[in-house]
Amino acid sequence: MSFLIGQPLDALDTPSLLLDLDVIDANLRRMFDAGKQRGVNVRTHFKSLKCGGLARYIKERGGATFLAAKLNEAEVLADAGITDILIANQVVGAQKMGRLAELARRVQLRVCVDCVENIEQLSKAMSKAGATLGVLIEVDIGMARCGVLPGDAAVGLAQRIAKSPGLRFDGLQGYDGHLQLIADPAERKGKSEEATEQLVATRRLIERAGIPVTIVTGAGTGTWEFVAGYPGVTEIQPGSFVLMDCVYHPVRPEFNCSLSILTSVISVRPKWYNLDAGSKAISKDFGMPAIKDHSTEAVTRLSEEHTKVECEPVPVQVDDRREVIPAHCCATMNLHRQAIAVRKGKVEAVWPIEASGRYD
Q1: What digits encode the pLDDT tens for the residues 162-212?
Q2: CA 218 to chain centre
């Protein structure tokens, strides 16, 4: 796709996934500067990005640490030259242990655990491979997903990890994902601080047991500033702030939408028009997308290959272009195989999205 470099958007086929690099630059500066001001590390979540070229781009601009949701994402990060990676999830099963050990020999790798059985499996695999794996205990601070309850249960796991060959206890993770999209900032702040206190209190218990806690990590794009400023937290792990979407942007208007899907008008009616991209190109799990820079044009339906847009009068003709802002940036990245990075209306790079469509 090198022939596209330098071409205007009109030269692109549709649908195409676009990344506006000027917007990404501004979003990165805002988040990384805020992290420095608060004295915390910003570990960018790769589950939102899935693109090795974008990870390299972020690293070149000061974001050297990343986390991944799955082992395959961590492998893509390592292949992209990222050397400090946290898998913010539990990795289980004999089929994955060899891959995990191999990756732990290549980069500084950490994973999360919430049970003794997983600790034992990881220790056996790392010892056999002669590798060392950093381990964080995931603490359930209200999301009711993975993680041990705050308090004594985490202390017991920390003691077990500290005694396990091939493993190194590094700290705690507590993700407040259930709070990210609360519309009222005061409510979001209060609930986030309540959740974070459970995580920090667990840190204090583990340290009283004589075990050092190096990392306390959590938050997302919706709660980053509340967690970053909380005493006892060492890092935050937002991801959507890089791309944003039409659902997240009202919650965090300081970060603008860099991700859009370039589409073509394929059919026009008196009160609506249709675009050549549907739910196979634009995720609808968080609702309907928006038409960029055209707030009076409302998306009312996403079928597999069509987006229906209602407006009156209809201001487009067949073969006109529209950029669509998804309602969920992370899931939309997972639907595409390449990202076209643009700056001031021209193509600057074309990156494969290596981790899209993979769930291992």
Answers
A1: 999 999 999 999 999 999 999 999 999 999 999 999 999 999 999 999 999
A2: 12
Q: Is the pLDDT of residue 62 over 80?
A: yes
Q: Is residue 20 classed as helix, strand or coil in its secondary structure? A: strand
- Length of the chain equals 360
Q: Predicted confidence band at 109 (pLDDT cuts at 50, 70, 90)?
A: very high
| pTM exceeding the 0.85 threshold for the entire prediction | yes
SS3 category, 164:
coil
Distance CA 26, CA 294 (A): 22
In this structure, which amino acid lies at residue 54? L
| Contact yes or no for 353/319 (Cβ under 8 A) | no
Token pair, residue 105, equals 């020999």
CA-CA distance, 72 to 239, in Å (whole number)?
17
- Look at residue 2 and tell me whether its pLDDT is greater than 90: no
Joined together, the tokens standing for residue 67 give 């986390």
d(CA 107, CA 109): 6
Backbone φ and ψ of 14, nearest 5° = -125, 150
DSSP classification of residue 354: T
Q: Where in the chain is the domain with CATH 2.40.37.20?
A: 252-352
Which CATH architecture does the domain made up of 22-242 adopt?
A: Alpha-Beta Barrel (3.20)
Range(s) within the chain of domains with CATH label 3.20.20.10: 22-242
Of 46, 36, 39, 41, the residue nearest 66 (C-alpha): 46
Enter the tokens of residue 254: 């300081």
Relative to beta strand 307-310, strand 298-302 is antiparallel
Average pLDDT for 15-20: 99
Q: Per CATH, which fold does 252-352 belong to?
A: Lyase, Ornithine Decarboxylase; Chain A, domain 1 (2.40.37)
**Residue 51 scores a pLDDT above 90:** yes
Name the phi and psi angles at 160, rounded to 5. -65, -45
Contact 89, 70 (CB under 8 A): yes
Residue with tokens 């609808």: 284
**pLDDT for 302-358, tens place per residue?**
999 999 999 999 999 999 999 999 999 999 999 999 999 999 999 999 999 999 998
